[in-house]
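Per your request, structure below.
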């Protein structure tokens, strides 16, 4: 999309009296190879191409998309978006100027130039590594990559083009015993080219997934009750992401659908808790040069020593809240209007010793790895599965347990944290919300919650 076409399309979008218009054009190549039981199961390639056009008048917003990105197709799309507004006063647009963005993610190997043969050989090595762990019945593996080119133009004069590269591995190792199955998984990824696969020990990734499933297949079921819990680092941060992060997005806050509405400057967490939302981390899975509205991304302190400092805010909700945008607008594709979303969200390092956390907790649970779960952003109530857990007796890890879940409310768990370690790591996931599914990092060091409800199971 060149500037001349973009200006004509924006003029068409504003012809009925809108006060702002925007074009988001996307061309994306996706590749995925999957393997099961050592056999290549699927080799898929796809292309996603299209554009979405938004028009605002105050808090009214209209969004129309098309996969006809010829000038005629874009003009027709713009005129359709403009039909939602009928205002006699007309607004002009500023001349488009290239946004000088920091290109923070240079790559070494375009993933689409790496042969399927090489990718399959990598998966075979991972399969061999997973199957080398005694007790594993099968492994399900995958490698996916994407190249997303975006062009964004708006009536405030912004014109930006960016190219984003993503590469990710997945490994699920399944252990079977006495008719029961347990699964361990590892899913590392990065905003990076294929060279990412050479920066990590891919065989060790498969072994770690296998060890989790083998450990859990022999574990007894976890008892239920209220107890202290130490939550492991990395994907343990999914609890903050889901139970608290979504409640700090303007998507919820601007409509009064968050338990943290109106609490800027107030204490919402323990003094030891500092939480960051950072879209600028080099090569991180959720990082971006610019968000999906063309705003440069930022490092945003959400909570500082227990005090709520910021929300994540997109353009439309900045109007509702009368607050500036934070570079947090994201969408799955051109088929979705953007809204405020997380990028790389984590509890920052503290100073506590991880071994002391467990040694001083008495009886409780060590949730080494977290799994999936659900949350209600309006109330912060959550329920998360523990993928790998261990009972703690008198400050010592006694035995693995399975079937555990953590149940609580985001605002309560933040205040119940009494220890934060110094071994911050991050893990990768896909986050779903009203603007689709997007790549995000979650993370934290070890943290300890003084008391939380642990759901258990019995045979």
């Amino acid at each position: 999309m060149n500037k001349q076409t973009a200006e004509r399309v924006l003029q068409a979008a504003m012809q009925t009296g809108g006060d702002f218009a925007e074009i988001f054009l996307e061309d994306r190549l996706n590749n995925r190879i999957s393997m099961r039981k050592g056999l290549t199961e699927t080799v898929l390639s796809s292309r996603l191409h299209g554009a979405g056009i938004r028009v605002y008048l105050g808090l009214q917003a209209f969004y129309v998309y098309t996969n006809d990105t010829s000038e005629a197709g874009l003009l027709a799309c713009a005129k359709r978006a403009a039909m939602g507004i009928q205002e006699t006063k007309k607004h002009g647009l500023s001349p488009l100027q290239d946004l000088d963005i920091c290109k923070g993610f240079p790559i070494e190997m375009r993933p689409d130039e790496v042969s399927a043969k090489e990718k399959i050989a990598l998966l075979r090595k991972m399969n061999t590594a997973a199957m080398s762990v005694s007790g594993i019945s099968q492994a399900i593996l995958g490698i996916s990559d994407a190249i997303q080119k975006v062009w964004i133009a708006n009536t405030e004069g912004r014109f930006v083009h960016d190219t984003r590269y993503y590469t990710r591995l997945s490994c699920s190792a399944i252990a079977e015993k006495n008719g029961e199955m347990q699964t361990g998984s590892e899913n590392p990824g990065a905003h990076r080219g294929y060279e990412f696969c050479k920066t990590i020990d891919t065989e060790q990734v498969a072994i770690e997934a296998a060890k989790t499933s083998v450990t859990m297949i022999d574990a007894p079921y976890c008892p239920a009750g209220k107890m202290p819990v130490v939550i492991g680092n990395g994907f343990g941060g999914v609890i903050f992401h889901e139970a608290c992060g979504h409640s700090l997005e303007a998507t919820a806050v601007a409509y009064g659908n968050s338990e943290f509405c109106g609490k800027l400057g107030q204490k919402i967490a323990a003094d030891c808790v500092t939480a960051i939302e950072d879209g600028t981390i080099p090569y991180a899975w959720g990082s971006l040069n610019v968000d999906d509205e063309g705003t440069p991304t930022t490092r945003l302190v959400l909570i500082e020593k227990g005090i709520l400092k910021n929300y994540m805010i997109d353009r439309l909700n900045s109007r509702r809240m009368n607050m500036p945008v934070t570079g947090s607008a994201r969408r799955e594709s051109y088929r979705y209007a953007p809204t405020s979303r997380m990028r790389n969200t984590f509890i920052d390092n503290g100073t506590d010793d991880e071994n002391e956390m467990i040694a001083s907790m008495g009886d409780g649970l060590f949730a080494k790895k977290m799994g999936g779960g659900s949350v209600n952003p309006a109330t912060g109530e959550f329920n998360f599965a523990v993928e790998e857990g261990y009972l703690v007796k008198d400050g010592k890890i006694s035995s693995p347990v399975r079937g555990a879940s953590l149940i609580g409310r985001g605002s309560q768990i933040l205040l119940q944290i009494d220890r934060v370690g110094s071994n911050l790591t991050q893990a990768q996931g896909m986050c779903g919300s009203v603007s689709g599914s997007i790549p995000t990092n979650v993370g934290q060091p070890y943290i300890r919650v003084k008391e939380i409800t642990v759901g258990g199971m019995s045979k």
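The mean pLDDT is 95.

Regards,
D.
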